[in-house]
Specification:
The chain is an all-alpha fold. It contains 8 helices and no strands. It has helices at about 5-30, 35-55, 60-90, 100-115, 120, 125-150, 155-175, 185-230.
Length: about 240
């Protein structure tokens, strides 16, 4: 097997494993269905992509159109709006209702269908939309990194900034540039992109877990402090006049 193809397959496998593993962890450990399901959707996209490549399918295959849908799903709403709403749980104690969860995934499905079906018609407008959504999400992710830095988690904070910067670079290259020496299938680009996306899923999960644990410790200390405060007129040490 050609080394370039082997690296492509390994990058895809890393994205599949990261998506399913940490998607399940988000759901099982934190009941965060927004991030959990989005991670699983990215992993499913990677699985479809891998099978498509292995069987040598062409542009007439349903897998080809499914790949476009998954891509549009995540780039329009998934790794933008859904990502931000999911992280708000640990940055702002946001607790979305089931209606919000269903609604935002419904929006992502519509976005995926529209952006994939009319990609050729939208042309540059679609590319600009994706970059703008990524830029706005990047601003929030930098805030997320700052929250980690603020609690002394410099390693996790730096990791978030690095993968976020890499993802922003990938988003810019996606529609507006080409990697010198890459082939017509953009194998080098997709290899780097999938490694970046898999790294994002791991790093953001670890950052989420770290901030969640910090919030829990603060809440425990706050409850302990509150319970230690004596209530005037009660208790064995209260003074009766």
């Amino acid at each position: 097997m050609d080394l370039k193809i082997a690296l492509y397959a390994l990058a895809d496998l890393s994205m599949i494993v990261a998506g399913f593993t940490f998607g399940w962890k988000f759901i099982n450990n934190y009941k965060n269905y927004l991030l959990g399901l989005e991670w699983i959707i990215v992993a499913s996209s990677g699985t479809n992509f891998l099978v498509y490549a292995l069987v040598g399918a062409d542009e007439t295959s349903p897998m080809y159109h499914l790949a476009f849908f998954f891509d549009a799903f995540s780039r329009s709403v998934g790794i933008t709006v859904i990502l931000v709403l999911g992280l708000l749980k640990v940055t702002h104690d946001f607790k979305p209702s089931i209606a919000v969860d269903i609604g935002v995934f419904g929006l992502a499905i519509v976005g995926g269908l529209v952006m994939s079906a009319f990609a050729d018609d939208l042309g540059l407008a679609a590319a600009i939309f994706y970059v703008v959504m990524n830029a706005l999400t990047t601003l929030f992710l930098l805030y997320f990194a700052w929250r980690l830095w603020e609690i002394g988690e410099r390693g996790h904070s730096t990791a978030v900034m690095v993968v976020t910067a890499a993802a922003a670079a990938v988003a810019g290259i996606y529609d507006f540039a080409a990697i010198p020496g890459d082939d017509e299938h953009h194998t080098i680009f997709y290899t780097l992109a999938m490694l970046t996306w898999s790294s994002q899923m791991v790093v953001y999960y670890n950052g989420y877990r770290t901030l969640h644990n910090s919030n829990d410790r603060k809440a425990t200390v706050s409850r302990a402090t509150s319970s230690a405060v004596a209530i005037p007129g009660h208790g064995r040490n209260s003074v009766h006049l």
